[in-house]
Known about the structure:
By secondary structure, the protein is of the alpha+beta class. The protein has helices spanning 2-9, 59-63, 108-114, 152-168, 239-251, 277-291, 304-307, 314-319, 321-330, 344-351, and strands spanning 21-30, 33-43, 54-56, 69-71, 78-79, 87-88, 95-99, 102-106, 121-129, 139-147, 170-177, 185-194, 199-206, 258-259, 265-266. A 7-stranded mixed β-barrel has the order 1-2-10-13-12-11-9. A hairpin with a 2-residue loop joins strand 1 and strand 2 (33-43). The longest helix is centred in the middle third of the chain and has 17 residues, at 152-168.
Amino acid sequence: xxxxxxxxxSAFRKREVKQVTTFRGVLEIGKHCxxxxxxxxxxxxxxxxxxxxxxxxxxxxxxxxxxxxxxxTLERALSQVTDPDVTVKxxxxxxxxxxxxxxxxxxxxxxxxxxxxxxxxxQTLCFASLKDIKRHYQMGGxxxxxxxxRKDYAGAALSAxxxxxxxxxxxxxxxxxxxxxxxxxxxxLIPQVDTxxxxxxxxxxxxxxxxxxxxxxxxxxxxxxxxxxxxxKAFHPSNEQRAAMDALIDDLDLMTxxxxxxxxxxxxxxxxELFNPVLQHMYQCIHMRALNHNSDGxxxxxxxEIAKYLNPDDDLLERAKHSLKRVREAFTLEKxxxxxxxxxxxxxxxxxxxxxxxxxxxxx
Length: 364
């Protein structure tokens, strides 16, 4: 029965996290208006737990009755670059920032003066349309902003604000400082109306500053006007190619690729059923090593239930085989002619339009 119990313990299950507030304060809407709120983390990237460094003992020491490992402590020593034998105390160091080829030193006193002094706050800056908050503007994890459960009026006030924003398709833009002297951030509070649980709340998503945003420019797929010949017509997709891609997208649609208990179509990969393959394999290996101390070093393979996330679904590919064939026929690949190698002189002649003359063309 021990094996049955171990199988039950090794079954995949969601990680239970203690519900802890990340912020308790007032959502300020004006100078004399505010709603007491709590915030809780909704999504946050799960990382590996920190491993403890251990000293691996020899087989002789283990045979004498000692444990196979012993705890160790980590010590860091600083030394001069010019003379590695000279050690430097940490109290004798200061930070330096690169400015071109030079290093600009900053003492601890100067850093404390430059550090921005802030107070805990969630202050409304303005309201914005949800259409203007693009998906790629939202950074990092998300947090839920709910009413303070200790104050009765807070629930009614926040619910009124959430439903007003939800009806008008607006979001609240706030300046949020979570801790004393912490970095201020600009967040978008997106309204959520949960009719099943009778709960109205905001989802807080951080917005980028101009330094955080990466502005990349890409050539348009189609000319913006009839006179714009930026893209040759030969590169424009034909009606047959568009229809082939439309059919492929429809056949690979995950929203109807699965089957529920009643045999009805449903979503194939639902978010609340997807486990992180890297984390699960790590837990699986730790579980195996904990129960098999004398293993030969072989680690278990990734569970098939988890491995299927990393590969296309066979049934889905079978359903899309006709559209895949249609795409291959519509987008044919042809081997291009081998480009000739051009030297420096030939390159500049081609660039110059083949003139070849002028300047130092005759020099050896």
